[in-house]
Amino acid sequence: MKTWVRRAGAGLSLAGALAAGVPSAWGQPMGLPSMGAVSSAELSPAVERTLGQAIMEQGRQDPTYVDDLDVNQYLTALGRRLAAHAPQALAQDITVFAVRDPSINAFALPGGYIGVHSGLVVGAQSESELASVLAHEIGHVMQRHIARGIAQQSQGTGIMVASLIGALLAALAGQGDLAMGVATFGQAAAIDRQLGFSRGAEQEADRAGLQMMRQAGFDPQGMLAMFRRLMNASRLNEGTGGGYASTHPLSIQRLSDIENRIEGQPSAAVKPDPEFWFVRTRLALIQARDHADRQRLRQTLHGEARDLRGQRQAAALFGLASLDQEDGDLAGARAQLERAQAAGAAPQLDMLAIRLAAAQGLTAAVDVSATAWKRWPHSQGVAEARAHALQKAGQDKAAAVFLQAAVEQWPDTPEFQKLLAASLQRLGREVEAHEAMASYFEQTGALPTAVEHLRQARTLSKDFYVQSRLDMRIRALRERLDNQRALLEPFKK
To answer: What is the pTM of this model?
Structure first.
């Protein structure tokens, strides 16, 4: 499944393309190969990654984008666990992120990016069910369906692709602002429907996904259960034009194929990650936008806290404590948190403990975050919470040291560069702050902005060696910009 975010440049935008209408020829040709040798009609991995980064740069400004390190770290780890068992090599690393949307849906972007609607995670009744949808999307990425479909459209009447690439080229030349014309992931679904995969491609993705699930240690029955749930949801929502089935056409044939492949197979010895339940609860909290939603969620969590045990009960109590904290009932939140901690352990509980400690005092939050970090040294969410605690307490020197270590631990997580830049700036280390922001923008795909920060850093520095280092980085980024323009130019109409 493919979902696009429209982007704007100087005088050329996907918003304009949408307004002009999309020709019916934009739909994917039914004869698109699903497996086998790479077709000549496809994007190179470098072009695909460039497009994906550009779309994600815009997508991070989308109000529905879930900017939560803890959630996205879990989802990406799950995706990469599955991708490690892909029957064919992947041209791109898998990166999974969440979108706040109650519908049951997921989508793949160019470059190995996979978006998951919050409703899909909240609706999943096991980690294997969630894994089945991610494995299916990874199957599309593995078979390069996205790259081939985009390339065929760019060679035909691909007005959307041409507009996207035109906007990106303008921005790379410093003639456009990619932050203009922000579109939501939901608005992009109209384009996604135009790019629907053929039934054969969907079935191949099912089969590849099922193989990944088995080898990664998930229960294949999860795919069957999710299929049935999705088919039921599509019947209930028939005529609304939304949901997973509108872009991933489900059929009895696909369901029967999975049933036949699972039949007779031994039961899987599944060891689910207990964090699934906490991430599921966290996304349910993010998804609940109004009072009625929150009341319904509270009732559901009360029932789960009463009827379930272990990590699932702890996750429900975590949700109740979070609701109390958001409502200002700190005593109630602490009581629920204590019950949750007695039922299980998870980094999400310690992150909530840090937030509750901050209400007592900034020093208390720093102390609690130190303990949490010792307990969960691989959690990006806990690392972020500790950094915020240090910064709010005015301990920017300690925060900078901590964040520099976090950047080394997670070099591909740009949020830590942004946090580091804030502390460095408050410490008066302006050159380093601009360098950190340059790294942030480089990692999020905004190369012209990264170059501008490096130029500012060079202007501020009087050190010859620092200037030389900055000159090298500027030259390297300019070369990347030139290479990106050369890669994209053939696809511009």
So the answer is: 0.85
